[in-house]
Amino acid sequence: MRPSGRQLDQMRSVSIETDVTKHAEGSCLIKMGDTHVLCTASLEERVPPFLRNKGLGWVTAEYGMLPRSTSSRMRREATAGKQGGRTVEIQRLIGRSLRAGVDRQAMGERQITVDCDVIQADGGTRCASITGGWVALRLAVNKLMKAGDIISDPLTDNVAAVSCGIYAGQPVLDLDYPEDSEAGTDGNFVATGSGRLIEVQMSAEGSTYSRDEMNKLMDLADKGLAELVAAQNAAVGA
């Protein structure tokens, strides 16, 4: 029995509310169970120096957790004067995941920055950030297309992410914090809407796992990703 009472292949409840901020070109609040992340996409008519005059756009991301997104207060990283290694790793993951679904030539020489701010954490924050980040990116690109600033849609596919793991000896889908903290194996699966893998992060947490168990986790991830893509499309009216 999972702590939440869910079935082994059951996702947490997922909701995506769009246009939640006034100024960002695209925004959403994604809730996966008790993990809540605010995602905003901001457009700039410039690219980083290494891309100037190359006719390519750029999508990047930043990630952060609010001090009381966790059970006890976290110190703001700005107070420490630098980002922690975990934060840097996650925001790089978000950025390269979202770029996998973008035709950067069709985007033109402009940059979209996707900010993912964790309001409340209960496991799976990076997966929620990628899934919600794509929705914010989709909405920002829709505005570019409506304004006629780009001719063809630069988003080639959805991008979503879900966690799976082995908890109490059983492969389970969409780990919450009680499961994540006790899982023998933990994995994050990022893929396109058509099922093409972008990144798989799997590691043993005190116990090893077999090829068969890995395949079972990937099958669970396929189910969860399909549900998340459907939620994304419903949110953006696709």
UniProtKB/TrEMBL annotation:
Subunit structure: Homohexameric ring arranged as a trimer of dimers.
Keyword Glycosyltransferase: no
InterPro entries associated with the record: ExoRNase_PH_dom1, ExoRNase_PH_dom2, ExoRNase_PH_dom2_sf, PNPase/RNase_PH_dom_sf, Ribosomal_Su5_D2-typ_SF, RNase_PH, RNase_PH_bac-type, RNase_PH_CS
GO BP terms: rRNA 3'-end processing; rRNA catabolic process; tRNA processing
Protein name according to UniProt: Ribonuclease PH
Originating organism: Actibacterium pelagium
Chain ranges of the Exoribonuclease phosphorolytic domain: 10-140, 158-223
Enzyme Commission number(s) of this protein: 2.7.7.56
Top-level enzyme category: transferase
Positions annotated to bind phosphate: R86, G124, T125, R126
UniProt GO MF annotations: 3'-5'-RNA exonuclease activity; tRNA binding; tRNA nucleotidyltransferase activity
Keyword terms: Nucleotidyltransferase, RNA-binding, rRNA processing, Transferase, tRNA processing, tRNA-binding
Family that this chain belongs to: Belongs to the RNase PH family.
Function text: Phosphorolytic 3'-5' exoribonuclease that plays an important role in tRNA 3'-end maturation. Removes nucleotide residues following the 3'-CCA terminus of tRNAs; can also add nucleotides to the ends of RNA molecules by using nucleoside diphosphates as substrates, but this may not be physiologically important. Probably plays a role in initiation of 16S rRNA degradation (leading to ribosome degradation) during starvation.
Superkingdom classification of source: Bacteria
Catalytic activity: tRNA(n+1) + phosphate = tRNA(n) + a ribonucleoside 5'-diphosphate
Alphabetical list of Pfam families matching this protein: RNase_PH, RNase_PH_C
